[in-house]
Amino acid sequence: MPNASIADLIEDRFGVRIDPGSDVPGEETLARVLARRTHRRYADRPVPEPLLQTLLACAFSASAKSDLQQSGVILVRDPAKRATIAGWIPDMPWIAQAPVFMVWIGDSRRIRRICDLRGKPFGNDHLDSFLNATADCALAMQTFILAAEAAGLGSCCISAVRNHAQALADLLEMPKWVFPVAGLCLGWPDREGFISARLPLSLSVHTDRYDDSRLEEEVDGYDRRREARNPTPPEKQRDRDLYGTSPAYGWSEDKARQVSHTERDNLGPFVRRQGIGLE
């Protein structure tokens, strides 16, 4: 949507008109965030190393819980290692094709080593420590994504790397207290892509208490809006051999089918093997 207003971008994404008026502070940045999209197809053009390092500096300028800075990233530059990861996830060829591929990590190791260096005990070996490192990593990764998009680059998160958490940790030599959060492809987009419609704000924004009393009608409306824009052909419906073909297929049917299959139930044991307490 070239030259779209903030109100247009919100309506396109959420199906509701919110007009902040003219002369909005930071309008260009807000519009860029509202227009952001995932890219899985990249031009055959490298990302200059100084630009990549600048984007990483932006990433690690993100908020960090109590300034503990428990996030990190591993740039996967070894062709053999990249090919191995791509081979684990063959339905995502962009892992092999992107000019840059990286794995974002939660790093609870650094602070524990610092405690040892300073002769202090680490007194937080429990679930909240895991959540803190994960949140730090997610904040840094999203900041990287937004910085990359501001520079004209596109990206695609790869949560499927966690399907192979132990093998990935072995391949990338992650020591105890370090764990993968997501992969990320990066490159110059070779096409514009499209803005993905999101659930209505009324389902995500709550005031004073959690309220999903209108879930059914809001999701039904969202399904219709999303399918009207990007219809799902019957042959693209998920798990037709198990669930058949639905005449009213939409986001909710697709996601219900997706999560009906157990996935990554070995992640907890892996994290524990990395030495992180989850109690």
Going across the major beta sheet, what is the strand order? 1-2-4-3
User: Would you tell me the overall average pLDDT?
Assistant: 96
How many domain regions? 3
What is the helix content?
A: 40-55%
**Low-confidence stretches at least 5 residues in length (pLDDT < 50)?**
none
Q: Approximately how much beta-strand content do the residues carry?
A: 5-15%
CATH superfamily of the largest domain: NADH Oxidase
Termini gap: 47 Å
| Alpha carbon gyration radius | 21 Å
Largest sheet: 4 strands, antiparallel
**CATH architecture tag of the largest domain:** 3-Layer(aba) Sandwich
Count, helices: 13
CATH class of the largest domain: Alpha Beta
Order of helices and strands: HHHEHHEHHEHEHHHHH
Task: Estimate the global geometry from the Cα principal axes.
Answer: globular
